[in-house]
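Renewal narrative, Specific Aim 1. Our central claim is that a sequence can be written position by position from structural information alone. The example that follows is taken directly from our test logs and has not been curated for this report. It begins with the structure tokens describing the chain, in the order in which they were read.
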């Protein structure tokens, strides 16, 4: 009954204690052979009784290490070799793939580097135990926690392929590393204060402060100083979140005037004192990913902390109903939160609009005018990675728990119930999305301009990059290019197809167009990519009704002068390859072009002018009373003469215009501010709506917004509170969405009635009030509603749609060429 099996485990099985787990399991079951990492995952050559081998494989699937995620296990029986022991072997050279080819189990690189993992409870106990040899050692980690992705240079995930390779383990650490019963058994970042990385505290001139680094850093924060703190994936700018003057100073130096700061809280008890926390939100906060979670604030009078008088300063998130909170995820964070205060601002270490700093020498230059002191270390970061941002939006019917695939066993990561990602980075990256369909070729998708990510398609996997930022300057473009090169190296990929947004001015598009070599280049329409991104992560094929609401995207039609229109309030009949534009908001000029985005009052004027003509100037409302008539004449001239006033169907600009009309926000200081504050104002207890008109012309639906504005103006003239107007506006947009989808469902296409599946995508659907209304109304009409959970609904998820569409389009093109060639045409 003895058998020999060659087994390959694929997924996140390196850097998570999987080999030690296999070793202990195999020795317990009296199996012989070896286990090792390689570029294909974890490779196991094992002999024993058949029933024990079956138990071995089932145990790997049923109870793997906490942070492991097995995507697939494949095996094949081979002739016995006669192993006498079981051992962990070193990884082979990359070119040595004889074993894998012999068993026919693999054909390309499939090892996945794990995400960075928050400090586990065992390491935390050691860190705060005066009797432990790692007492207050800020780089304490083990097989179950610590940095992974951000220190990995290559695969397989071995110490020699990480930035820890310059630190030689002392005898005590080596003993742990080689002890099968120790949780640091083969932990690659293993180190201690004798042999591992060290902290330094510098002033802004780069001079080192010689005293106790941890204690002095905590004292500086308590005194209201601003520290640049090196973390796992880059630098944070930190200050005491309870001291108004410190937060104000940080805002002034960083030039981030109003956008909310993220806060790190000591523990869940502190968070509960500031915000309402559901069980799902608590699980997210405490998860090994440790994202920033957006939570609803308690009223200021009812906020409290673990210490009397602990309240977050108003300057942290001025005027917002939500607070972005995360819990400590490194030993250093835990120390500071216990000794410097219960709440620290932890915002990205950068100047506004630049990428997060992760190199020490760069930090001392770029952050010297912001930080008073620098808490740095000599553990290099190889890949920058910002904090992830998420929230809970429970839609349990849409969650996927698991699925079986042919050729092996596949399991998806369990999604925290209703989690909706806003920024996907630390803790989530580089874990890919596994798609039902394989990519025919290696594809690179370059994403959009705002909230840029890129995506690489390979095999069944879509590898979405961490959040890079807005590609509006040279620094961010360089970061974008560097990350692409790192991913290509890590994944052993040379793209054969590149996808990019149709907008010619996007730096990501220019990068793609200028690539050299024999590479297929495919432009992708912005809103089609949004919809397909939602389809791909939900495993949808065929066609759906795609609702894409966002700020702007390059259109495929033009105005009377031939200028390209800017879309953003779109209803598409979309598949993974092509789409039809079935409906959209009526066009309106954007006076000033990009300036109208930063100055929403311009959009309000454009909507009013096209609703009432110049008669709106006689209205007895605050917006008109405060209007600079000289500026109005300039705006009117731009609109009438079509000077720098592109036409747009954008839903985002409609929200901006209403926000300005209500006096909420005339000029923004960060993207989406006007719409965010309009949502924050909404009173969710209304069910009345404004009128709108749905027209049908040449088989396409046109939605008029003029009735909305007339209704809003009537409310303002009658003294209706702005929060009630905001609620009615949101409710009207949801009803409009439902009615247009119903109209589309009733229309007949070539193959009969249109689909009943609706995919909601685009940055406007970050508005959870609107998202909930749309989901409820569409579901009540019998639609199957799909939203984003695992990638952002904003432009941060766009590259996933691009990579799928490009692969399908390239495949179709190749098939058509083959068909013509076969027919002699």
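The sequence written for that structure reads:
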């Amino acid at each position: 009954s003895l058998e020999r099996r060659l087994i390959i485990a694929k997924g996140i099985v390196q850097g998570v204690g999987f080999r030690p787990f296999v070793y202990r399991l195999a020795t317990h079951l009296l199996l012989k052979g070896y286990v090792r990492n390689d570029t294909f995952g974890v490779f196991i050559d094992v002999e024993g009784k058949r029933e024990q081998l079956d138990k071995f494989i089932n145990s790997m699937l049923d109870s793997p290490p906490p942070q492991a995620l097995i995507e697939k296990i494949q095996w094949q029986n081979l002739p016995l070799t006669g192993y006498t022991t079981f051992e962990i072997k070193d990884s082979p050279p990359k070119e040595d793939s004889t074993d894998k080819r012999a068993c026919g189990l693999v054909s390309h690189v499939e090892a996945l580097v794990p995400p960075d993992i928050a400090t586990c409870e065992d390491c935390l106990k050691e860190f705060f135990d005066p009797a432990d040899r790692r007492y207050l050692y800020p780089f304490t980690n083990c097989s179950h926690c610590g940095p992974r992705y951000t220190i990995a240079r290559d695969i397989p995930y071995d110490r020699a392929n990480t930035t820890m390779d310059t630190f030689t383990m002392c005898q005590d650490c080596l003993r742990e590393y080689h002890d099968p019963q120790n949780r640091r058994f083969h932990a690659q970042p293993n180190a201690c204060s004798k042999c591992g990385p060290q902290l330094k505290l510098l002033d802004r001139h780069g001079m080192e402060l010689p005293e106790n680094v941890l204690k002095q850093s905590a004292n500086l924060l308590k005194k209201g100083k601003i520290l640049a703190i090196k973390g796992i994936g880059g630098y944070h700018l930190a200050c005491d979140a309870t001291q108004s003057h410190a937060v104000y100073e940080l805002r002034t130096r960083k030039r981030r005037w109003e956008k909310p700061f993220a806060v790190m809280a000591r523990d869940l008890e502190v968070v509960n004192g500031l915000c309402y926390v559901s069980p799902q939100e608590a699980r997210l906060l405490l998860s090994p990913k440790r994202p920033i979670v957006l939570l609803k604030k308690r009223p200021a009078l009812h906020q409290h902390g673990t210490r009397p008088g602990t309240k977050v300063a108003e300057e942290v998130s001025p005027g917002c109903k939500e607070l972005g909170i995360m819990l400590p995820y490194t030993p250093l964070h835990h120390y500071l939160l216990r000794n410097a205060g219960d709440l620290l601002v932890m915002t990205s270490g950068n100047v506004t609009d630049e990428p997060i700093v992760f190199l020490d020498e760069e930090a001392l230059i770029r952050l010297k005018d912001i930080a008073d002191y620098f808490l740095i270390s000599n553990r290099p970061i190889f890949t920058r990675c910002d904090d992830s941002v998420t929230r809970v939006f429970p839609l349990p019917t849409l969650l996927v728990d698991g699925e079986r695939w042919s050729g092996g066993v596949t399991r998806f990561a369990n999604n925290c119930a209703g989690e909706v990602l806003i920024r996907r980075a630390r803790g989530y990256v580089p874990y890919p999305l596994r798609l039902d369909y394989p990519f025919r070729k290696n594809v690179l998708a370059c994403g959009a301009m705002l909230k840029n990510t890129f995506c690489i398609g390979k095999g069944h996997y879509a590898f979405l990059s961490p959040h890079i930022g807005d590609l509006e300057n040279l620094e961010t473009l360089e970061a974008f290019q560097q990350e692409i090169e790192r991913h290509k190296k890590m994944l052993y990929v040379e793209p054969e197809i590149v996808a990019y947004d149709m907008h010619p001015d996007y730096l990501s598009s220019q990068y793609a167009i200028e690539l050299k070599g024999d590479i297929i280049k495919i432009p992708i329409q912005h809103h089609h990519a949004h919809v397909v991104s939602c389809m791909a992560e939900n495993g949808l094929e065929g066609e759906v009704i795609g609702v894409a609401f966002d700020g702007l995207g390059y259109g495929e039609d033009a105005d009377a002068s031939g200028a390209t229109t800017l879309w953003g309030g779109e209803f598409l009949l979309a598949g993974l390859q092509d789409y039809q534009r079935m409906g959209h908001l009526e066009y309106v000029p954007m006076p000033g072009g990009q300036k109208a985005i930063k100055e929403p009052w311009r959009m309000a004027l454009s909507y009013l002018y096209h609703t009432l003509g110049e008669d709106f100037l006689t209205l007895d409302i605050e917006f008109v009373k405060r209007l600079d008539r000289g500026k109005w004449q300039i705006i009117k001239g731009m609109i009438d003469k079509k000077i720098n006033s592109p036409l747009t169907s954008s839903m985002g600009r409609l929200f901006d215009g209403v926000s300005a009309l209500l006096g909420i926000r005339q000029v923004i200081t960060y993207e989406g501010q006007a719409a965010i504050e309009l949502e924050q104002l909404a009173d969710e207890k209304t069910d009345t709506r404004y009128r709108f008109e749905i027209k049908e012309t040449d088989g396409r639906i046109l939605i008029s917004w003029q009735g909305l504005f007339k209704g809003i103006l009537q409310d303002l003239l009658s003294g209706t509170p702005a929060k009630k107007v905001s609620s009615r506006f949101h409710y009207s947009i949801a009803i409009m969405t439902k009615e247009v989808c119903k109209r589309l469902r009733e229309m007949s296409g070539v193959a009969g009635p249109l689909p009943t599946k609706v995919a909601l995508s685009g940055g406007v659907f970050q508005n959870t009030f609107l998202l909930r209304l749309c989901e409820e109304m569409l579901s009540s009409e019998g639609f199957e509603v799909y939203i984003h959970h695992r990638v952002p609904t904003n432009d941060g998820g766009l590259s996933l749609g691009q990579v799928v569409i490009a692969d399908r389009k390239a495949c179709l093109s190749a098939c058509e060429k083959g068909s013509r060639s076969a027919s002699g045409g």
